Amino acid sequence: TQLEQALRNAIIADAVDVHFQPIVRISDGGVVGFEALARWIDADLGFVSPAVFVPLAEERGFIDALSETLLRKAAEAALSWPRELFLSFNLSSAQLMDPGTTETILATLARVGLDPYRLELEITETAVMTSADTAQRIITDLRQQGVRISLDDFGTGQSSLGRLRDFTFDKVKIDRAFVSRITTDRASEHIVKAIIAMCDGLNLAVVAEGIEEKADADKLNELGCAMGQGYYYGRPADSAATLRYLQEHY
Ligand code: G
Ligand code: G
Ligand code: MN
Ligand code: NA
Questions:
Q1: The domain that contains 222 carries what CATH number?
Q2: Helix (H, G, I), strand (E, B), or coil: what is residue 126?
Q3: Whether the model pTM is above 0.90
Q4: Best CA proximity match to 191, nearest among 205, 204, 208
Q5: What value of ipTM does the predicted structure carry?
Q6: How is the chain split among helix, strand and coil, in percent rounded to 5?
Q7: Residue 72 forms part of a structural domain
Q8: What is the number of the ligand 2 atom nearest to the C-alpha of 21?
Q9: Are 77 and 18 in contact (CB under 8 A)?
């Protein structure tokens, strides 16, 4: 298709970019890391969402090439940051089914010179489910090298609690579906509260996603949620804007 060909060309031309969204300590707003988010604007097609082109690359079998490019760019940007903040990078489900993923990631980090301790990989429950044995192997091997694993979009997948018992994660990212309603919907507040308590008990770090208003941040702080992310703190921005953001925020 036209889209597929355009994406292949963009990867070869190094035209797929990566933006960064801050992740902060909710108690004082201090920046602790950034999530890398792929961005692509095609000359003919205009803006194409990664929600479209990542699944396409998976389906057509070139997610490895795309992801390697993105991780390289993200890691290079992370090296330019004035502080040793963590870099959070999304891993797709196809990558968790591929035993070669561990080596690809570690090789990219080594080439760029980013310490594995600074990398976090965001994976979803659905991705872990599709190929549990391979996924577990990849997670175990990468964690052994210092890479941390976050469970992304927590609360929206299937049998979430079982995943937490059977797999080893370092962090849980509470889906914005709950966070966005936290000040207006009692049920959402209770769910978020329960997730935070559970993560405390399981020794998992926790991040609330999709914080858009100060009131959300205040409520999450009151509930003891340590980290947050969302438009209230900052939108995804390119690497130059991210460096400026870091000069203006501590
Ligand atoms: O930021 P945005 O709404 O455009 O992201 C849409 C979706 O694309 C999200 O689910 C996000 O996790 C995913 N995504 C963004 N960048 C990447 C990437 O580099 N790799 C993978 N696998 N998914 C990504
Ligand atoms: O699936 P994942 O959680 O990786 O994707 C994160 C998505 O959420 C990205 O598309 C990102 O642009 C988007 N996002 C980040 N912060 C906010 C926010 O405060 N509100 C909304 N609606 N989307 C957000
Ligand atoms: Mn994510
Ligand atoms: Na998420």
A1: 3.20.20.450
A2: helix
A3: yes
A4: 208
A5: 0.98
A6: 50, 20, 30
A7: yes
A8: 15
A9: yes
